[in-house]
Each structure stands twice: as C-alpha cells, then as structure tokens.
Amino acid sequence: MEIFGNNNRRRRIVTRGVSFALVAAIAFSAGIFVGNSGSVAAVVSHIPLIGDGLDATPDQSADLTDFWKAWNALDANYVATHASSTLPSTKDRIFGAISGLATSYGDPYTVFFPPKEAKAFADSISGSFAGVGMEIDIKNGVLTVIAPLKGTPAEKAGIKVGDQIITIDGKSTDGLAVDEAVSKIRGSVGTTVNLTIIRSGKALDVKIVRDTIQVPETDDGFDATSGVYHIALYEFTSNSANLFDDAFSRFKVSGSKKLIIDLRGDPGGYLDSAVDIASHFLQKGATVVTEDSDGKADSIVHTSIGYNDLPAGTKVVVLIDGGSASASEIFAGALQDTHTATLIGTKSFGKGSVQSLTDLDGGSLKITIARWITPAGHWIMGNGITPDITVPYAAEGATTTPKVDPQMARAVQFLTKGK
Asked: Which of the residues are catalytic?
C-alpha cells in the first residue's frame, strides 16, 4: 500500500511490531501505518490488484482434486447443529480457502482479511479508533507485548514489555493471529478489556479501560551536572523527523558533546522518519537499511539524505530494549554498524519483515515480500539488534522497579568516563 501526502510523495511505512502496526490500539495520525507493529514492524508496499495486473492464471501443477472433493462433500453432507446457524455463502467459502492458504505459510504477518476485517484493519491504519495503547506481536508462538506506550491506559494498568497475553476477555489467544487479537483488544472509549498475562512464570489478570490514545512523540533535555543531552523517541510518526530536528537543534545549542538517544519501548513507525533522523548522523548515500526480497524482486537500499550535522567530537549512545522494534531497530542498527553510536540496554524485539497489501474482492491479502537487513548484513527479523553493552533494566526475578534507571545510568557513565 502506498500512502500519499499533499505533495503526492510516496510514503513507505513500517508496521510496528505486530504485523501491521499492530497497534493493539493506538490512535495514529492519518496515513500512519502500518508502521507495529500488525502490529508492532513491517513496511507496507503496494502490489497490483486482481484485474490490475496481478496474475490470476491457474497453476497447472497444482492438483486441486482433494480440494473439490472436500468442497463437494461439505456442500452435500454438512448439517447445521444450531437453529441459528447459517451456511457460508460461496464467497465465504472462497475467502476461507484463501485464509487457509495464507496460514499454510506459517508466517504470522502473511494473513487474509475478509471484507469486514479488511475494513477494520484499514481503520486501524488510519487511526480512527480507540484502544489501550500497546504494541503486540507473536514471539515464540505466543502473543506478546512489544511495548506499552507512554502515558496510555496499558502503561497505567501496569502492562510491561514482554508480557505474554494468554486470554482476551476470557478467550484463549492460542493460535490467534495478531490482527485478530488487535481487533479484540480495540473498542469504544470507556469500555474495558480483560487480559490474562504471563509474567515471570506467573498468571496475572489485568483490566484496562480503553481510551483515545495521545502518545508523546519526543522528549529532550540537558543535564547540567553530567553535561549529557538526551532525546527520547516514543514512536516514528510522520511528524517525528520534524520534532527530532527541533530537539537536535536544542542539543547543538546546548554545546554538549554527549548525546543519548532513548529508543526503549519505541515500537517503530514510518521508515521515512527513521531514514531522515539517521541522516543527522550519516554521510549522504550511506546505507541505512536494505529491503531484501530474496531474489524475487530487486533489493531496495534506503540511504542517508546526508544532513551529517552531528557536532564534531560528539559521543552518542542509543538505548534499546525488548520494546524497541521495527523503525527503531533500523535506526539503531544503522548507527551501530557504521560505528556512529554505542548501543546500551537489552536486545531489541526483532521485527524486520516487509508486507504488501493486495485487494481481493473486498478482502485484503497481506503478504511478507521482503526482510530488513542492516548495513553490515544482519537480519533484523527474529534476531533483533544486540547492544554493544548489555544492561538489564532490573535484576532477574525482581518485582519492584529500581529507583535509579540502570540503563540510563550506564549510558551516562560511558559518555562521561569513557567506559
């Protein structure tokens, strides 16, 4: 899918974490997302529609005998077991077959949305919904929280990075696609969703009241004691590059030569924004990320615009954690591979595939068409970005929040003491 602004410039978007911005319920500005990640990080591209050039020629090597046997057996023999049951229409059965075909690939981001679900998905991309404010994805076969977003109902209810969601309103999430989970978690402002989560091996019940989500995009400031300037990015929206420009200008005016960019809990967003922001640190033409299609299409190399206006002698730290996904991983990986910044924290989420949408008679088929590769050739998908200096936020098994942010403290130590 392509999103156009007023100047008709194409925007490629990264879905955050969950297959498409899987905003388990964030309200994004118009034009966002994909993204968190359905949810939480893939880029949405456009591929031809049926009747618009997409090949509809039958594959003569595919023997569909058993399919038609099953079709006819169901047609001739199925008996409804409830008086209120209605038989599926021919179109419903075709959509069901397409859904099963997509599922057979075993990729949680390759899914089919029938018309009703396709409309709900389009609404989530446009931001016309309310929710709880967290990004979710499938990790190790389990529906998992990538990150609760700052100041949202999910964060206020105590949801944490890595929480595994095992039920939604009492119904198991086993085998549930991310997009389906998103639709179940979303809802009207003021209503409640009940989640059962697993954290540190223990089951917890969490009630979250849905609301319209207003997420701060950036935060920045100067610490006179340490001489360190910090810029926090909470997501990569269409406006994030402009907001970062403002914060970066304030950093340069401060005279500091020590910069921390905090991407913890940032589930991603616009690829354009990640490339634009990385361009403050990289020379023009330097690779930010490569979109690799495994030979099925030409690879696309996304390169720096070349602002390259980081003050000489500045030391940079990027903070990441398991809630950093998609565009966050693209940005962090680019600065790490080019030796522009030192990464501190814990391994990032590992959402690095590219999706495309195809319209099918009112439904939408979302297909993984490429993967993200960092400048040094590392696959982001499933691997994440490993920090140069690993610092857990809390001790293993800890049940209380530390009084001092150990990752931030380690970053300040590295910048001020050089180790």
From this structure: 326, 337, 351
